Amino acid sequence: MRTRSGLVLAPFFFLLVACGGGAAQDPKTSADANSGEDKARPAECEAVGKHLVALKDRPKGQGPADEMRSLTGAFLRLADDLKKQPIETPDFKEAVAELADEAESFGNQLKSMGPIVDEMEQIKGQLSAWEKKVTSTANAFDATCNNGPQAECEALGVELQKVPNIEGEKFAEHAAAIEKFIAAMEKLQVKDAKVKSSLTSMLGALKSGVPLMRRFAVLLAESKKVDPAGEEFKAKVNRVAEMCGVKPEE
């Protein structure tokens, strides 16, 4: 099973906005070049660019929860630094002010996500332990069947092959599929007492993961609510980048 260890934090700051440091790139098309329109590059680009590079180069967190805290602090610092940055160019001043506001908004949203990420990490550990428990009971069932009635065990083996494939992030669907599988298995008539006991243990172990998956699905949906804010931040960065002569990210 692959839980969402990467979480919600695809680095929205991946735009290495090279507003400063070296000559500016030229994003103009040939049509633009022939139009005779050429806006001057704002003098404050280098200073703003350094703040954005500092966001990218911040110390990375150890694990998703620590990374969330690192990101939160980095975005709030960026907002504060941009607000304090002296800018005289009117249009650029407006663009940077909007970027600062978006960085602050995004940072605060990330901050509110802290408890969610912490709980997701906790459940990931519980799901890992659950997988080991299911594997252990499955191995015990195999051992029981090795010394049990061959015909009955072979028939059960055919049914056990229908166990759901648990991959990807659709945890609510996985939980429902497991419950449906367990319900079908519990309807089977098992005559051998040892085989029945071993099967019951295995199904019980499998069932214990259902509440964890359902809770993780809820948390995962909550974690994705910051995605639009990340896209909006990217748009604000692209606007600043374009004004500084840097080709915006797609």
Automatic annotation (TrEMBL):
Residues 1-23 form the signal peptide. It comes from the Bacteria. Keywords: Signal. This is Lipoprotein. It comes from Polyangium jinanense. The lineage of its organism: Bacteria, Pseudomonadati, Myxococcota, Polyangia, Polyangiales.
